[in-house]
Each structure stands twice: as C-alpha cells, then as structure tokens.
Amino acid sequence: MKRFSVAAISAVIAIALAFTAAGCDSDSVITLTIDSANEGVAVNPDMYGLFLEDISYAGDGGLVSELVQNGSFEYAPDHCAAWVFDGTEAEIATDDPLNENNTHYLSLSVGEGGGMLGNIGYPEYYDYLTEDYNAALAQTPDMGFDEGGEYVLSFYARGLDGYAGEMSARLGGADGSDLSDTVPIGADDETVSAYDGWSRYEVTLVSEYDRDGGLYLYFGEKGSVELDFVSLVPKDSYGYGSDEWKYVSLREDLYEAIADLNPGFIRFPGGCLAEGDDLSRLFSWKNTIGPLEEREQANNIWRDESIGKSYNNTFALGYHEYLQLCEDLGAEPLPILNVGMICQFEFDPDYRDYEADYLHGKISEADWNAYLDKFALRPGTEEFDAYVGDVLDLIEYCNGSVDTEWGALRAANGHPEPFGLEYIGLGNENWGLVYWRNFDALYNAVKEAYPEITVISSASYQFSGDYIDESWEIINDKYPDTIVDEHYYTSGNKLFQNNDRYDSYDRDGAQVFVGEYAATCWGIGSYVTKNNIWAAVEEAGYLTSLERNGDIVKWASYAPTFAKINAQCWDINLIWFDSQNIVLTPNYYVQLLYSNNTGSVYVETEENADVKTSVTADKGNGVIYVKLVNESSHERKVSLDVSGYGDVNGWSMLYIDGVKAACNEPGSTTVVPQSREGSAENGRIATTVAARSVNVIRIYCGGNDGAALWQLPEIPETMYGTVTEYDKFFVEPETAIALGVTGGVVLIAAAVAVTVVAVRRRRQGKRR
User: Fold this and answer.
1) 68: number of Cβ within 10 Å
2) Which residues contact 539 (CB under 8 A, 6 or more apart)?
3) DSSP for 563-590?
C-alpha cells in the first residue's frame, strides 16, 4: 500500500507539472507569410506621439530649464514657498508691482550684520517609491548643478541703487558648502528694464561640482530692497539664446529623450490642467504667451496644500513654446482646450443625479442651467461668447498672417511664419449633457470661422461603460467628422484581454485618438517599479491592434510622459527624472521602437497564440516592419516568408525583454533595447524572440540595404553606467498559480493516500 501511495502521488505530480507546461512548448514556431498581395488598411506612420501636461513637475521643475521655484512670489497661499531666509525679514507687497499680471513682489528688510535669501528649487517630497511625506526632504535644496556649468542669475530690484551694503550671489550645497565662487552684484550688472522704477540685474555663476544645491543671495549691511522675478537658468539648456526660443529654454536631457521618440504629434497642455478647478481659474491660453514676467500665473491643479506641496504654474511652458517644440520635433500640434467648463472631476459628485432629474422633468430648465453655472460658462452669455472669441483667436495666433492682430503677436514672440495648425481639441475626458451643450456651441463656431480645422471631441475617461457609449452615439450621430479622444488607464491585464477592441468599431463613424493610456502590472511594486517589462509587453501587444485598425485609429499617446522622482502626482510615467538623472522606462522603449519603425500600410498575416503581431510596409523606401510581442514565458522560434515582396537584402531586429518585474530605476538599469542583424535565404528569415519581449524586425527589400534606417540612440550617460541584470526576488503570477495548483493537488493526493492506508489498516485490524 505504501508503494501504491508513492506511485499515485508521483503520477499526480507528473500530471500537474505536465498541465503547468501545457501551452508552453518552446519548440513551437511563429510562422508568418508576408505578401504584398495581402496589403490592407492605411496606417498613419505618425501614429505614435506625446502627451505633455505639467503634472509631477513635468513642466515647471522639469522640462523647463528654470531652476528657481516661485521666483516671482505669485504662488498662493504661500507667496514665499521654496524661499529661505537668514538675518532678513520678508514681506509680500503689491503696491506698484512689476506689471499688472505679476502683482506680488518681495520687500526684504536686512538686519544688522547683513542677511541671506535663498531658493531651494523644486524639492522632492516623498520617501522613495512611496507617498510618505518627508518634511526634511521637502526642505532640501534640489537644483542640479554640473561641474563647469554656467548658470545665469537674473532678477528685478527696486531700491538696490540706494542700498549701502554689498550684494552677492553663490551656488551652495544643502550642507552649507560653496558650489561656486561668490559673485558680487553691483551697478555694472544692471541692465535696461521695461518696467518703471525697476532695474534688471544679471550675472553668471559657475558650478565647481556635480552636485545638488540651491541659490543664495547675500546682503552685507542693514537696509531694505525690493525683489521680483528671480531666475537661474543653465546656459547649456536647449534653445538658450536662440531667436526661436525667445523667452524659455528646456532641460537638455529631457528634451533629447522626447526628441529620440520622433513623435508624430504632441497633445498639450492637458489633461485636467487644460481646464482648471474653478471657473475663476479657468485655463486661458492667452495667459501663457509673451514675456515670462507678463504671463499671469496660477496654482497648478495637481498641487497638494495638505502637505505643503507648492505647485505654481509659471506657464513658462506656454502655448507658444508648445507650438515651437512641435515645430522643432516635426510633430503635429494638437492643442486641447476646455469648452468653457472646469475639470469634470471637480464637479459636484451628485452631478449625474441632477442630470437624471432634469431629463425626467424633475428640475426645470432654469434651475438646471443655474446649477450648471457653478461649473460651466453658459452658451449665449457674454462670458461664453468671450471664451469662444479666445478659441478663435488661438487659431489666428497659429495660422494668421502678420497682418492680423494675433498673427502679429506671434511674430513679436519670435515666429513670423504661421505654425500651420490643423487640429484643435475641445474638451478633456468630458461627458454628459453639460459637455455636449458647450461642445456644440464651440464646434459650430470653429467650423463656421475655420471649416478647414478638424475638431477633436471627448469620450469621457472610461474604457467601457455608459459615459463612453453615449458619447460615441452622440458623436457618430452629430459629429462624425471629429476625431474622438479616448482615455483609459488599465490594470488586471485588460489590454491583453481586449486586443480586438477596435475590430468592431463602425468604419463609417468618427476616427479614434487614444490620447491617454497606460497599463499597470499588478503585484510588482510601487511607482517606478510599476513601469516594468510586463506592463510594457501588455501595451506593446495592444498597440499592434491599433495598427491593425489603422483605418479607425489615427493617433496614440502614452500618459503621463514626465514625473519627478519622489514628487510624483501619478503612479506610472513614461520618463522619470530627478535633479541630475533621467530614467527611461521599458514603456518608453516600446514607444521608441514603435514610433521610429512603422510603415504606411498594414499587411495581413497569420495569427499566433501568445504572440501579438503587426506587419506594416513602407513600400516607397523598401522596408517591412514586423512587430512581434511575445507574451509567453519562453523563447519562441520565428519563421518569416517575405518572398511576396521580391528580393530581400537583409534584416535587423530591435528588442527589449526581461523578467516580469524588470524595471529601470536610479542606479539600476535592467531593460535597454538591443539589436541584431541577419540575412535571408530565398526570401525566408529565421530567428528567435525571447520570453516576455517586444521585437521589431526591419526587412530591407528592393534597393534598400538597410544602411539608412533609424538606429538606436545612445543610452543616457546617467543610465549607461548602471546597466545590470534584474536580480530581485520575484515569482511570476503564472508560476505562483502553477505551484499552488500543483501543491494543492499533491496535498489532496497525499491526504487521499493516507486515508486509504488508514482505512485498509482498520479493516485488517477488524479481520484479526
């Protein structure tokens, strides 16, 4: 009986292990026949782009090169946020300000023996990989300085000419150390100011170290002085000193990261930021152009005053800068404007109930409109008509000649030639009667004045549900000429499960813009670690379905793009950074590979289990792009028959892979794109794809030898030196399940065997 029990258990274990291995045959071959006769729908080669919003210090404190936070003292409620004082007393004044849009300034009283005024920049707030507020970190200077880097300090002052003491400036570390020489500031540093009574001063500070620190201004004697618009900008920032970037420059490494993506478009400036959280703070594009000193600032909707997380929008990354950025990157500008209503997530939580009551006649028209007036401008009112005028003025700013009012202002801001705007978005994640009421009025106004402009409409924030269903019904009935902006942030393998999402969309309806999307991989960790290879594989597999449905899907952009480490407002982001470093995620590398390797026509091929496939062709240049996303946990062989495209000269493959939890973090880079090349025999290609991998095979046909194809950019220097294998303990979900099933079966079998033995022994005992 004991031998029978062991044998039974062994058999059960073998069966369980065989079951675990089922469907995981590493000898199975991915076979594709790629023939020009099977070319199908057109695909937008510029399908992949960027969504930029000032969230998580993405703009101010990130892409914008300005190192001083709250340099104009406009942030409310704390006008002295990010500033520190020693031997000085500060008072915020408003009498006779710099200009009508910059109404606050610092009135500084210096005590006996002199004093100091310092700025810590944009600090980190949380312990790493958490949302645990760290008060000490939030007060630690966090400007990133480079050894030998030159930093231009400028500010406006009033009364400095009558101040008897000396004034100087330096860069300093958090420990009080000197990071630069102390530079005196005097009359020779004064420049002409456009503002009566104010003088502008400018000096250059040179860092002696690669280190974090702050800016410090010193006053040698007792006295008083008024200061405003203090700025510190690195000279090596992108656009610095150029005619095109007249007012703003960009942080070089962050600019290069998005330039490498070769985005087909840029969606901006939000997101919720493009709306505002109160009608008194409704986002206005007109506040974001012109000299920085004259841009009307506002509290960022992503601030967190409960922990003292100041977040002010200087709008240094304004509409003109976004348009200039699009031009520099060769990207289509896709500005998103609100429809005269605040962010719908800031509405009364009972809005949907009020809407239902109105539809059922329980609320009068007058009461319904009065209720909506708390959140939205009402069509037909002077306020709404003025807002419509603002939207039309934007189009003139972008496209008008220098003989028009707004075209002339564009020229004055550094861009005489029109930007050539073709699209405009009306609404962000909006739904319901209030949205369609305002959208209709704005849509008709835009189409009447500029019929050539294509409008982008909103379809709520849902992946599925009543909001998105009713939005699509309205759009296809009344606005089929719009492009529909869908947003979804998913978890639980939803993108894996819905690869056929767009296969059944109405081909006679509106086109789709997946304006915000991202997948979250469960059970791995927090923040940076959620941007791991498994989430990237899920997204990459889903994107193959967008290419397959290229006749419906025009654009797609991952969101959000940027986040400062330990200061994040969102869990998952394409690019993480701190004051010195940049972290490109596996999700970023999916965008990098896809955006630089997409043809203009989709080629139908066979389907393969566990492998998502997309084949597109660029016939004009003789290139075929084969995207293979291996979702399985084992390597797969690949066999491609490309003889249907004539002579094949060779191929190369770009790919990323890793264990599911593999991610990139500061000081640890475990996922980077790799490449290999090969030759073809009689139009056939044989290769392999790794487990959990995203692969792009480029096949050179006709007269193309592959020499001119896009090449992988270099890994950023701060990441390159930390490339290593991912070695943290992790059990893959399917492995845990398999072990659990196997263990459960073994335990059950053992229990059965023990029971059988016990029963037989009892029977034998009775016989005795």
Assistant:
1) 24
2) 495, 517, 518, 519, 558, 587, 590
3) EETTS-SSS--SEEE-SS-EEE-HHHHH
Nearest alpha-carbon partner for 603 in 658, 651, 547, 563 = 547
Out of 76-80, 140-144, 276-280, the most confident range is 140-144
What is the distance, to the nearest Å, from the Cα of residue 51 to the centroid of all Cα atoms in its chain?
6
- Cα separation, 375 vs 282, whole angstroms: 10
Tell me how far apart the alpha carbons of residues 317 and 65 are, in angstroms, rounded to a whole number.
Answer: 10
- HEC string of 398-467 equals HHCCCCCHHHHHHHHCCCCCCCCCCEEEECCCCCHHHHHHHHHHHHHHHHHHCCCCEEEEECCCCCCCHH
Residue 51 parent element (H or E) = strand 50-51
List the end-to-end C-alpha distance of the chain, in Å, as a whole number. Answer: 18
Q: Is 541 left (phi over 0), alpha (psi -120 to 50) or beta?
A: alpha
Q: Which residue type occupies 691?
A: A
Q: Over the stretch 682-691, which tens digit does the pLDDT of each residue have?
A: 999 999 999 9
Backbone angles phi, psi at 38, to 5 degrees: -105, 20
- The overall average pLDDT reported for the chain is 92
Angle, to 10 degrees, between the axis of helix 405-412 and the axis of helix 382-399? 60
Using CA atoms, how far residue 732 sits from 133, 458, 525, 532, 741, in Å, is 31, 38, 13, 13, 14
Entry field: residues in the chain:
768
The one-letter amino acid code at 520 reads T
Which amino acid is it at 620? Answer: G
**Beta-carbon contacts of residue 345 (< 8 Å; ≥ 6 apart):** 272, 429
- What is the chain's alpha carbon radius of gyration, rounded to the nearest angstrom? 30
Average pLDDT on 68-78 reads 96
